[in-house]
Design brief:
Elements lengths: L5 E9 L5 E6 L3 E3 L2 E3 L6 H13 L1 E14 L4 E13 L9 E5 L1 H7 L3 H11 L4 E8 L4 E9 L4 H9 L1
Parallel strand pairs: 1-6, 5-8
Antiparallel strand pairs: 1-4, 2-3, 2-7, 5-6, 8-9
């Protein structure tokens, strides 16, 4: 069997005013920045590169939010939280407009179904990582779970014994 998975990354970028960075894509409307991980590139470098290319912004990655997979196209999407570090808002071939918006405003601006689902998860501030699998056309979540990061009954038992 030949494996042909693709990996994409996205970042929910916050500034010191607790605003969120959104861009208007020519294909999907308003969304958060992100894109495909290139061969030989680390996940973190890909995220920083995509955010810089699409918005002109430099970020620090501060947290892991979730992961989802398009089971029809074998694309795995990995979502992170990022803190604005510097740079000037700039458009690109992938962004018609780029702007900072209030958290409350963000959900109203995003219309693409998958992007809304992921943004809702990004903004929910739960202490667990969201993992879901979906079909894109028509959009359908086929299963979804939330996982605790780094903790398990096994590890608690193991640590109690040492």
């Amino acid at each position: 069997m030949e494996y042909t998975h693709f990996v994409s990354v996205a970042g929910l970028v916050f500034n010191d005013n607790n605003e969120i960075l959104l861009l208007e894509s020519p294909r999907r409307g308003w969304e958060y920045p992100g894109g495909m991980v290139e061969p030989g590139e680390t996940i973190q470098d890909a995220l920083r590169r995509e955010i810089k290319e699409e918005t002109g912004v430099e970020v620090d990655i501060t947290g892991f939010i979730g992961i989802c997979k398009n089971i029809e196209k074998d694309i795995v999407n990995i979502d992170f939280i990022c803190k604005y570090r510097g740079g000037t808002l700039t458009t690109s071939d992938e962004s018609i407009k780029v702007k900072w918006v209030a958290r409350e405003e963000a959900m109203n601006m995003v219309s693409f179904t998958l992007t809304r689902k992921r943004l809702h998860n990004m903004l929910s501030a739960v202490e667990k990582v969201n993992c879901f699998n979906f079909r894109r056309e028509p959009f359908e979540v086929v299963n979804e779970d939330y996982f605790t990061v780094g903790k398990s009954v096994f590890m608690e038992d193991y640590n109690a014994k040492i």
